[in-house]
Specification:
Order of helices and strands of chain C: HHHHHHHHHHHHHHH
Largest interface: A-C, 92 and 105 residues
CATH architecture of the largest domain in chain B: 3-Layer(aba) Sandwich
CATH class of the largest domain in chain C: Mainly Alpha
Radius of gyration of chain B: 26 Å
Number of helices of chain B: 17
Number of helices of chain C: 15
Radius of gyration of chain C: 24 Å
Largest sheet of chain C: none
Number of domains of chain C: 2
Structural class of chain C: mainly alpha
Number of strands of chain B: 14
Strand content of chain C: under 5%
Number of domains of chain B: 2
CATH superfamily of the largest domain in chain B: Periplasmic binding protein-like II
CATH superfamily of the largest domain in chain C: MetI-like
CATH architecture of the largest domain in chain C: Orthogonal Bundle
Chains: A mainly alpha (302), B alpha/beta (427), C mainly alpha (288)
CATH topology of the largest domain in chain B: D-Maltodextrin-Binding Protein, domain 2
Shape of chain B: globular
Oligomer: heterotrimer
């Protein structure tokens, strides 16, 4: 009986603690998301004088044949996967360094966070200039080092433009991952390592057997949010390449933004939002499913 | 125990509530708008830098019209963002702006969306006399006038007079001249690059291409019949000319990534003999190492064709939801008057939309090159005045960029661009 | 780590692992700082020096100026104040609302927990740029245009998923017996959260707080559209309003100056708070 009332009270408190957060989330997200689903069934564009006319699933039909959308989806996927992998590796390295004790650590930690603190649009301008073919810093350095004989047009060729974008994005967002992982590293009790070392484990072994498993939750969260942010990348691309050359760096967000805010095609834009959103949710659901399965296997082996 | 705990349990929640209320109160006190009751307020938004330049006009207008107050909202300095802000204001129905200070390229879309009030009701005979025809035409959509021109803008060719004199050339007239002279200047080691233009995938690419296209005698979209001319031989020749400049090393390979500013820097630093750009470069280049060593002329053309200059510029329209259209029209009348325009041009160096001002002694005394400028702006070519212009332009930009970076052959790129544009316009 | 530290106190030999660490530190600092130094340099160069090609890396004295900073004027302080206010409030609200929710989801086993978690996850996947039109309608309908609520609520909501998931992961890693013994001592849930759980997860709180603050400080699209009164605008909007003599001209110098100046408060903030990202558990355990 007392056990039950404690349970009940805990649950009530639990709900009370969650509700404010839920309210704020619903306030901001519910309407825009539902509105997108609803509007995607209508034609609302300059052709209809911006009046909504019900057209069923015809927006989705048009989407299937929209090569520009699929191209931008492909660009975004490549961009996201490559940048996340690079960021995770470098970010983990940063976090491990920042986790050590050394003189000036506070300053170094602060410096490591500066890229994340600078506004993307402004840094995009700087990056575009840094990658400029004639007088950019990158070409200048490579020429001086003798790696190149003539300057490279970084932003004028699809693969290189994508590389430049990924580089700039990695620079900008590695601190995000680093600081999340640092917080994770800091909550690993030191005695775990000591005990492990006494057992004769090398630092590399304790990294794989203690550090990684214990910060796995933070790694997953960092990856999740970087996945979402990276898939929605907008301002960096807008400023650095504008989606060019030949649409090779156009991302989904840029395309949808143009569809809605510049072409004023709200119905079709909504359908694009819905499909992108569902693809993202599907990707995460699949990952979660695979992770859950893998974890069962791991624990089963142990 | 339980009874005792209840009052103890309340404080945290009360505390939360208090914290919440205090925060809310703080926010409110920071954000309470000051409602001022003025005579009649006419509100307009524009780039922040231009909002500064409007202040003398505002003061003068308000002195002459004490019953109207002109409220100038300073927006961001990116034209796309200003357009987005206007569009969001209109989408919510009741726009806070009465006067729309609009780029010429917005008019068809804004008019088609029903956001603008036609000006024909207010026009008196003769009101449109004396303006550059391109500026007036750019304000029309489906035979109605929506925009009065304020300041004009047009693309042109800048060239280095000193280099041409040294090598003994006259300014180029045709595309072939341009290529030949560039090549020769480069061979003589007088300049690194011959001709620099805007090749990045963005609106500036479309604007530049309009000029090359017109010079080849081609067309983009016929506004009457909605015919698309991008896959005609003239258009393909225009693309081939641009590709030729890169292939021959007349333009740097990175030209396909340049916008206005990159090209201006190359010209200002004496790295190129020719530059395609807007009038804004003139005063800046006059304050640089090449001061006094350059001149302007209309873009070159193919033999037997006329040169074209992409029509840009800003003008005034009235919001469809404005409650004070008459008063807004009075503001427009003041701003488009010769007097106001002269003052504005003299102070800020923009290009007038009234023809007489190009030969105005006061203006010429300050900007002698305006005599040449008139020949440029008179040849202006409009970007297609269709409602879906933004999308039409994006299609061209993508495929043109593909052709320039050798993803596609000019024929293929233009064929695809034309096909997509047709599909869009038929819808 | 303790074992590595001992030899260094002898100060004669630098151990290989120590050397490796310093190489890493130098590389990291270089990677993070190089583009920033570029901005710093640009912000002090004269317009002529900025436009000069090839790029001037080592300007002479007459190529340097403080004019870009002076040109920003006193209003810039006001924009900083606005940004600070909005960022601070939304960070506080985010932590005040997010931490209890995270705790509840980590420990209290409420019915529907999985659904709430899934909701939080799903919501975090919606690209924030695309929230814009829907939010615009809400802001208009509720009439909070030109009211900081129109920024604070979205900023809070956008950062809530991160806050909740990060804090939840830390709460789950706490040793459970601590909370059990606290319960024995008669703490109720809220008290326990306040006095035991939160002090022990300060690194996580500071981390998410910093990330939220920085997001709010730099957010542009909402700030641009929802706040139109000039004296209420935030730094990114103010930066976007810096212009040259013409629309085409990009005033690199003033923009760089505004960026540098606008980032200084963030750097100070991180400098102050980063020392809190240290061994929360031991620090908390001592306090508790």
């Amino acid at each position: 009986m007392t056990q039950d009332t404690i349970r009940q009270r805990d649950q009530r408190t639990g709900w009370l603690l969650v509700i404010p957060a839920l309210v704020i989330l619903l306030l901001v997200f519910a309407y825009p998301i539902l509105r997108a689903f609803w509007l995607s069934l209508f034609a609302q564009n300059l052709g209809t004088q911006l009046q909504a006319e019900f057209t069923g699933f015809s927006n989705y039909g048009r989407l299937v044949g929209d090569s520009r959308f699929w191209q931008s989806l492909g660009n975004t996927t490549i961009f996201t996967i490559l940048s996340i992998i690079a960021e995770l590796i470098i970010g983990l390295g940063f976090a491990l360094i920042l986790n050590q004790t050394f003189r000036g650590r506070g300053l170094v930690r602060t410096i490591a966070l500066i890229p994340w603190a600078l506004p993307t649009a402004v840094m995009g301008l700087a990056w575009a200039w840094i990658f400029n073919d004639q007088f950019g810093v990158v070409n200048d350095l490579l020429l001086r080092l003798g790696i190149l004989e003539t300057g490279i047009t970084w932003l004028g060729e699809p693969t290189r433009a994508m590389f430049a974008l990924i580089f700039a994005d990695v620079w900008k967002t590695t601190p995000f991952i680093a600081i999340l992982l640092l917080a994770g590293l800091q909550s690993i009790p030191k005695d775990l390592y000591e005990a492990h070392a006494i057992d004769g484990a090398s630092p590399v072994q304790s990294f794989w057997q203690i550090t990684l498993p214990l910060i796995a939750p933070q790694i997953l969260i960092a990856l999740l949010f970087r996945f979402a942010q990276s898939f929605g990348i907008f301002d960096l691309v807008q400023v650095m390449t504008g989606g060019g050359p030949a649409g090779a760096t156009e991302t989904v967000s840029i395309y949808i933004y143009a569809m809605v805010r510049r072409y004023l095609d709200f119905g079709y834009g909504a359908a694009l939002v819905v499909v992108t959103f569902l693809i993202l949710v599907g990707a995460i659901a699949l990952t979660a499913f695979l992770l859950a399965k893998a974890r069962i296997n791991v624990s089963g082996e142990r | 125990m339980v009874n005792l705990k209840l009052p103890l349990k309340l404080p945290p929640w009360l505390r939360w509530l208090t914290v919440g209320l205090v925060i809310f109160g703080l926010i409110q006190s920071f954000s309470t708008p000051v409602l001022s009751q003025e005579p009649i307020q006419i509100r307009v938004m524009m780039h922040a830098s231009e909002a500064q330049q409007w202040q003398p006009l505002k003061a003068d207008f308000e002195e002459q019209n004490p019953d109207i107050r002109l409220d100038i909202v300073a927006g961001p300095n990116d034209t796309n963002l200003v357009e987005d802000l206007y569009a969001s204001a209109f989408l919510l129905g009741d726009s806070p702006y009465d006067l729309i200070y609009a780029d010429i390229a917005w008019i068809p879309k804004f008019a088609a969306a029903g956001w603008l009030r036609p000006l024909d009701d207010y026009l008196e005979p003769g009101d449109l006399d004396g303006f550059l025809s391109g500026d007036i035409e750019g304000g029309r959509y489906r035979d109605m006038l929506y925009r009065m021109p304020f300041r004009s803008d047009a693309g042109m060719l800048y060239y280095r007079t000193d280099l041409l004199t040294e090598a003994g050339y006259d300014p180029p007239q045709t595309f072939t001249d341009l290529l030949e002279i560039s090549q020769s200047l480069q061979d003589q080691g007088l300049t690194d690059w011959g001709f620099v233009w805007q090749g990045r995938q963005y609106e500036g690419l479309a604007a530049m291409f309009v000029e090359i296209l017109a010079g080849h005698g081609g067309y983009w979209v016929d506004p009457e019949t909605l015919d698309v001319g991008l896959d005609e031989p003239e258009a393909i020749a225009a693309v081939e000319f641009l590709r030729e400049t890169i292939a021959q090393g007349i333009s740097p390979p990175g030209v396909t990534t340049y916008a206005e500013e990159e090209t201006r820097r190359l010209f200002q630093n004496g790295r190129t003999a020719f530059l395609r750009n807007w009038p804004y470069v003139f005063p800046l280049a006059s304050d640089s190492p090449i001061a006094g060593k350059f001149a302007i002329q209309p873009m070159v053309h193919a033999p037997g064709q006329e040169s074209g200059a992409c029509q840009g510029g800003w003008g005034m329209a009235i919001s469809a939801t404005s409650r004070h259209p008459r008063e807004t029209w009075r503001v427009i009348q003041y701003l488009t008057s010769t007097e106001a325009q002269r003052n504005y041009i003299l102070a800020n160096g923009y290009v007038p939309s009234r023809i007489a001002l190009f030969s105005d002694p006061e203006v010429l005394a300050k900007y002698p090159h305006y005599a040449d400028l008139l020949s440029v702006v008179k040849n202006s070519t409009l970007r297609p005045p269709v409602a879906q212009y933004a999308q039409v332009s994006d299609i061209l930009q993508r495929f043109l960029s593909a052709a320039l970076t050798e993803r596609l052959t000019p024929e293929r790129a233009m064929a695809q661009a034309a096909a997509e544009t047709r599909r869009l316009l038929v819808q | 780590m303790l074992k590595v530290q001992r030899p260094t106190t002898a100060k004669t030999i630098i151990s290989p692992s120590r050397l490796l660490l310093w190489v890493g530190v130098v590389l990291m600092v270089g990677f993070c700082l190089a583009p920033v130094l570029w901005q710093l340099l640009t912000s002090f160069k004269t317009n002529a020096a900025i436009a000069t090609i090839p790029t001037i890396y080592w300007p002479s004295w007459d190529q340097l100026t403080e004019a870009h900073y002076i040109g920003l004027g006193g209003e810039f302080l006001r924009y900083m104040g606005n940004s600070f206010f909005v960022s601070l409030i939304s960070t506080c609200v985010c932590l005040l609302v997010g931490a209890p929710a995270a705790y509840s989801l980590a420990r209290l086993k409420i019915p529907g927990e999985n659904i709430i978690l899934a909701l939080v996850l799903i919501v975090s996947l919606f690209p924030y740029v695309l929230l814009f039109l829907g939010l615009l309608e809400i802001v208009k309908a509720v009439g909070i245009g030109n009211n900081y609520l129109a920024l604070i609520i979205p900023y809070t909501a956008i950062n809530l998923p991160l806050t909740i998931l990060v804090l939840r992961s830390f709460f789950q890693q706490l040793p459970k017996d601590l909370e059990d013994s606290a319960k024995m001592d008669g703490y109720n849930t809220v008290e326990m959260l306040q006095h035991i759980v939160l002090p022990m997860t300060i690194p996580a709180l500071v981390t998410t707080g910093i990330l939220t603050f920085i997001f709010a400080w730099n957010e542009f699209i909402f700030a641009l559209t929802f706040i139109t009164r000039p004296e209420m605008q935030t730094i990114p909007v103010a930066v976007a309003k810096i212009g040259g003599a013409s629309v085409f001209e990009i005033p690199y110098g003033p923009i760089a100056a505004a960026t540098v100046l606008g980032t200084v408060p963030l750097v100070i903030l991180v400098l102050l708070f980063q020392r809190r990202i240290v061994q929360g558990i031991t620090a908390g355990a001592v306090k508790g």
